[in-house]
Design goal:
Length: about 160
């Protein structure tokens, strides 16, 4: 009786069994090759795990970097705001003075010169800035020709006024 021709599906199954039986017989005949193959498979698994862990770490690092960049932008914005507030504070605390200005033959005390001969008393709170401004006012009045004594500190002056002069 004639053997029926195997179908293509049966052929693949037979070839696979044949390859598996050769591999099994090779393993049983050469233990060194079996260990070599086992170690190759283990190294491929380790490589795959390493790549997966590396990818995960890369994603985590990217997320962390984005968060840190956002924090850096926020910190820089707060720093700029703090610097602006510091400049405003420095301007508000800067030395206030009454300057003598001369321009085109005119000075800023020319408006006081028609009252030459008048006398004035300048009092101030006994603090550094009011003393300095009081001295500047006395100098301006003297340049205008007024009779002005040195400024006088006044302890009770601050109870009537909020300003130092």
């Amino acid at each position: 009786m004639a053997t029926p021709n195997p179908t293509p599906a049966n052929t693949t199954t037979i070839e696979t069994r044949s390859a598996m039986s050769r591999l099994v017989s090779w393993y049983s005949s050469d233990p060194l090759f079996a260990w070599f193959t086992f170690l190759q498979i283990v190294s491929y698994v380790i490589l795959g795990v390493t790549v997966a862990i590396g990818y995960r770490l890369s994603v985590n690092q990217s997320t962390t970097n984005q968060k840190l960049e956002g924090d850096l932008v926020t910190a820089r914005t707060k720093l700029a705001e703090a610097e602006n507030r510091t400049l405003e504070l420095q301007r508000s605390v800067a030395r206030r003075q009454v300057s003598f200005i001369q321009m085109d033959g005119r000075t800023n005390v020319d408006g006081l010169k028609p009252f030459v001969g008048l006398s004035a008393v300048v009092e101030f709170l006994p603090q550094v800035e009011p003393r300095r401004v009081a001295n500047d006012i006395v100098i301006a009045l003297r340049r205008a020709g007024w009779a002005v004594d040195d400024p006088i500190p006044n302890e009770t002056f601050g109870h009537r006024f909020l300003m130092g002069l």
